[in-house]
Amino acid sequence: xxxxxxENLITTKxxxxxxxxxxxxxxxxAAMFAEKGYxxxxxxxxxxxxxxxxxxxxxxxxxxxxxxxxxxxxVGGRQMRASxxxxxxxxxxxxxxxxxxxxxxxxxxxxxxxKSACTNLSAVLKKGALVIVESTIAPGTIKGTVxxxxxxxxxxxxxxxxxxxxPERVMPGKLxxxxxxxxxxxxxxxxxxxxxxxxxxxxxxxxxxxxTDWATAELVKTVENTYRDVQIAFANEVALICEQAGADVFxxxxxxxxxxxxxxxxxxxxxxxxxxxxxxxxxxxxVEGSEVPLRLIxxxxxxxxxxxxxxxKMLQNALEKYHRPIDKTRVLVMGYAYxxxxxxTRNSPxxxxxxxxxxxxxxxxxxDPFVEEFKGDVFAKAxxxxxxILMVRxxxxxxxxxxxxxxxLRQPLVIDGRRVLDPQNAVKAGIDLWSIGVGS
Length: 440
Hints:
The chain has 440 residues and is an alpha/beta fold.
């Protein structure tokens, strides 16, 4: 199959698409292409998710506007289906890969899912098909890992298949909106492949689609999230300075950002999710063994990783007022997802916080309105607790009667890691508030 034939199949909506990995990225991507008239097959290793998707239900909980309705529509209209069988991919013209790409404790990429997907795909890849990796990967991964695996059965790039990289740019809670409104980078094995990719994504993307090569596309995504991580680390370090100086970091930030071209990020109780804690290490891994001195990226990661532990220390300091040792303390942690109004717990800062509390002997109770394991009556969970630590800015918490909640505690102690409470209102309500970035 040639580039021109692929282009024609895309234009006429006759291209048969597949998406490998039906998680936070793959599922909405598959549903959106199906809505545009393409025949879409989703490949997912978890049978329970396949059954749920094929019944028109979304396995993604949390506030995800429009996703379940869209999925119900395209599955009901037989434009999309899910399967666990790679054999079903033999007739697919375009295959998108959306599998996880984590790093381990040594910050080394662990590409088990990506390697498995590429190996299994190579055995059934249709001649002339276009493969696009949407997963975030370290620079050099397409050339060094993906391409060799796709070619292992004798297939040749540019003759038997085409290969591109179009990193996803989504956030839980805004999956469909981000896919429509965020620009994308289309890195191809050739300018012709990149141009075909633009034609494909134009079906669902209303923003810029820029063409480039593999390496640039890989770098754009990892640099983007590393930039965010570094900026958040700066805000967090300023928050620590403000605590010592007796200032309010949020007021400092407000005034700093009044200057032109300033955009100080929000400080908080830690950085979570699948991307930001991982992508800086993917970027760094791309130059492993070289003479590039990496100082800023590791420093930023260290600052952000320590923020949940900083809240543990804040709690210890606050408890001194009540002459209560932390190993005799029962703590209600409010929020376990890494992001507000989401059920996504990947790299949750709350997990690090709870680990720190456990290590000191504290008893921990957890509430989260979106995470199945921690749902329940938050007021009932507060009964008998000595303190509350606010870790996630869920809408439910913003609307919550905190004065009523605090009355269920043994003492009115609240540690706020996300600026859920207004400090002045908290004081008026009789709450002993310790807020990140606010000095006494």
